[in-house]
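Bench notes, bay 3.
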Amino acid sequence: MLFDDVQAPSKPYCDICGAAIDNIDIHEVRIEEKEMTACSICYGDPTVRRIDSKTLFDLIKSVGKRYGYRKSIREVQQQIEVDMKSIEIDVLEKMEGHLLRQPTGKKIEFSVKELLYIFNKLRLQIAGHNNIAFAVAQISERGIEVVIRKDDDYVRV
């Protein structure tokens, strides 16, 4: 038998907050055309903010423009802690008749706490010694997404 040694996890995990879920507590949620498993706390919770890969790509590009693409992820995270400045990015969408994504006029603002949380999550998936240009490439290649849960002190990883 090929898969004899493979074991299923003892408890399923919430795709939003990462907490272990009891079987009674499982909810299936569709967030932006993706089927996700959610616990009862995250199910229908308006404080959960999901940052898809395109928005994350634009955010890290704007961070790279501000702090430099050659700096490592760790250095940029430390500089964000020192500067304590939020970042505002334009929302870009694919429009009919255009090759590239175009600005819609809307803006998304990320607070300092959110930026630090995003960089903590990025450092879990991309090594902290890599530079911002590498992080931008990895976000688009792997389709990395981050889920932020507000009013949670950004502790959950």
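Next record in the batch:
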Amino acid sequence: MGALVRERRGPRGVRDTATEIGISPATLSRVENGKQPDLATFEKLCRWLEISPSDVLGGSGSVPLSGQPAIATAHLKAQRQIRPELAKALGEMILRAQAMLADDSRPGEA
């Protein structure tokens, strides 16, 4: 994911790009250097990159996870290969769960 972010950012500054994405410059720098983003950051990055989470999780084909970004291996270590349909479903499920957790943590909302 870091390479995709770096490529999309191009010559723009880290601070401006991070503001556009909605994350801190330090977080953007960590992602660009290969660190695994948390789920909220992952979702923001996917939206900014205009890609489906399944693209990052291996949804473009049945590919060994060893060649996928760290986010995929962290969530799907037990699987050696993943079908595109499963990758898409897992990506959507992870983002829905994260959104539900965020909604539950907002005080005063039912």
